Amino acid sequence: QVQLQESGPGLVKPSETLSLTCTVSGESISSYYWSWVRQPPGKGLEWIGYIYSSAITNYNPSLKSRVTISMDTSKNHFSLRLTSVTAADTALYYCARARSSSVFDLWGRGTLVTVSS
Amino acid sequence: DIQMTQSPSTLSASVGDRVTLTCRASQSISIWLAWYQQKPGKAPKLLISKASSLESGVPSRFSGSGSGTEFTLTISSLQPDDFATYYCQHYSGSSRTFGQGTKVEIK
Lengths: 117, 107
Description:
The complex is a heterodimer. Chain A is mainly β. Chain A is about 0% helix and about 55% strand. In chain A, about 40% of the residues are buried. The chains are: A mainly beta, B mainly beta. Chains A and B meet through strand 5, strand 9 and strand 10 of A and strand 4, strand 5 and strand 10 of B.
């Protein structure tokens, strides 16, 4: 059974960098596209970006200048880095498997990140 | 960027009702549309891809239709487990955008 688990700090100060990791169990991350999606409290879903095979990345244009997604196949995990955060980046961050880079068919439980001093 | 607009924002219905949710794209996305169900405190669940292709294990009371810019998700007979928020998502081109969601609540 494939499972995804997000991890990382729950509190980040404004202007600093948010860093999260998604650990995948039950299958190799080399075989699929992997994505990050976030959801501000009480609001809708926002796609952040995806990565495939450490070489292909695609980011939401509205976040592109601040986002980096990377992967470590030896640890079977992928990571999100979001720089210069503000309160608007406060959200529940989900990692997800992106089937053929298109739809998100498997999700982690999400991790809440609050941006506050 | 392609924008996705869902209507209504909230829908009040009773168990057994047939309900239809709408999602409109700001430009044609062919059939590259998915629907998700999200319950409070849970991650979204993929219901439908390619506008009308039901995911394995999803009850047959759910159906999707549409192409181009207008799409619908229909629940033929609303069940207690179906009260949730539903999101559409396009995957045309390089970007991925969700609609703002439709909350289906108990009437």
